[in-house]
Amino acid sequence: MADTDDFEFLEIATSGSRRRVPPQLVIGAVIVSVIVGIGMVSVFWTPYDLNTVDVPNQFLRPGSDGYLLGTDKLGRDMTSQIMAGARNSLLVSMISTVASLIPGVLIGLLAAGASPFWQRFISRLTDIGIALPGILVALVLATSLGPGNPTAIIAIMFWFIPTVARVTMGPARQILSRDFVEAAQAYGRPRRFILFRHVLPNIGPLIIVQASVMFALAILIEAALSYLGIGAQRPTPSWGRLLKEAQPLIDKAPYLMIIPGISIMVAVIGFNLLGDGLRTYLDPQQTAKGTG
């Protein structure tokens, strides 16, 4: 008889055969790769220094005098600001997403394997966490911790953890009712071993999809918090901060709002397409439809 430790591998392998790569996955991966590449390049190089003030060259329109995306009210290069803003958005989104996935998945797994009383109790706690307005939490944190990226990261974390726990709990409970889990229990495997050795690998694709969707939402939230003055502060560039600084100048230099706005939109669309493509690619039902 095969070892029960191999049952979840057979479960994954069976659902993973003959998959077709959906077009939205390819498009999303390309967009995300470009944005990540821009953010990584900005760590080592930008066309101009981010904080160099060049008043004589202020409000240059895109394409003027070697400035690809123009300059702002202080003559700072917008291309450099957008590149560094991508780096900041990706960094904040990555830290907040990973930091919320770990406790969220852990809470969801433990709740799925707990008694009905604790399942109901944790479900009610996640309901309360999901109902709390994230912007309000961020404002409260800003008054105590001060504005900045750490405040934005903590606010996004508290916003995401209940959602991750709720998303993990339901599928984990379904996996616990499968035959290979009952076989593992018959072998005397402890509940925590089953959760992390059998259940977690089977809900891994779901967690990956959820992470990509959360990444897109984190970029949007970070931009919103920076726009409100809670997130990144100068001299750290941020797409949301650029939007706020450009708002009074919309009549004189509308490109100062259009460029960071498009950057945010493209990034969110890219990660959403990636998440949607991963969901289609990793969903066994979608695979069955495509091969049937």
CATH architecture: Orthogonal Bundle
Main sheet properties = none
Strand content: under 5%
User: Low-confidence parts, pLDDT < 50 over ≥5 residues?
Assistant: 1-16, 286-292
**Superfamily at the CATH H level?**
MetI-like
Shape: elongated
Structural class: mainly alpha
| Gyration radius, rounded | 23 Å
Would you kindly provide a written description of the structure presented here, covering whatever features stand out?
The protein is 72% helix and 0% strand. With 292 residues, the protein is mostly helical. It has a single domain, classed as MetI-like fold, CATH 1.10.3720.10. The two termini are 32 Å apart.
Write the layout of secondary structure elements.
Elements: H1 7-15, H2 23-44, H3 78-112, H4 116-131, H5 134-145, H6 149-176, H7 179-186, H8 191-227, H9 239-246, H10 255-282, H11 284-291
Helix pairs in contact: 1-8, 2-3, 2-10, 3-6, 3-8, 4-6, 5-6, 6-8, 8-9, 8-10, 9-10
Any key phrases for this structure?
292 residues; mainly alpha; MetI-like fold; 0% strand; elongated; disordered C terminus
Task: Give the gist of this structure.
With 292 residues, the chain is mainly alpha-helical. Helix content is 72%, strand content 0%. It has a single domain (22-42, 74-286), classed as MetI-like fold (Orthogonal Bundle).
